[in-house]
C-alpha cells in the first residue's frame, strides 16, 4: 500500500508542476481515454465522438479556468 501511495504522491507532484496548458492537455487526454475505455466495455454507439467531445470539453474548461492551480500561488507578489 505504501508503494501505491508513494506513486500517487509522485504523480500528483509531477502533474502539479506542469503549466496550465500542459495540464489541460493531460486532463483532456485522460478524460477522452477514460470515456473510450468505458465505451468499449459497454459497447456504446458513437464511441469516438463521445470520447473526443469529452477530451475537448475537459481541455477547454481546464485551459480556460485553470482549476489545478493552487490559490496560494496567486497571492504571491
Structure description:
The protein has 77 residues and is mostly helical. The mean pLDDT is 82. The termini are far apart. It contains 4 helices and no strands. The chain is 81% helix and 0% strand. The protein has a domain at 20-67.
Short summary:
This protein is an all-alpha fold and 77 residues long. 81% of the residues lie in helices and 0% in strands. It contains 4 helices and no strands.
Question: What would you call the shape?
Answer: flat
Mean pLDDT across the residues is 82
Overall SS class: mainly alpha
Percent helix range: over 70%
Gyration radius, to the nearest Å?
15 Å
- Quote the distance from N terminus to C terminus: 40 Å
- Sheet with the most strands, sense and barrel status: none
Task: Please state roughly what percent of the residues sit in beta strands, choosing from under 5%, 5-15%, 15-25%, 25-35%, 35-45% or over 45%.
Answer: under 5%
Helical region count?
4
Uncertain runs: none
User: What pattern of helices and strands is seen along the backbone?
Assistant: HHHH
Quick one: how many beta strands? Answer: 0
What's the helix and strand layout?
Blueprint: H1 2-16, H2 20-42, H3 47-65, H4 71-75
Helix pairs in contact: 2-3
Give structural attributes.
flat, mainly alpha, 77 residues
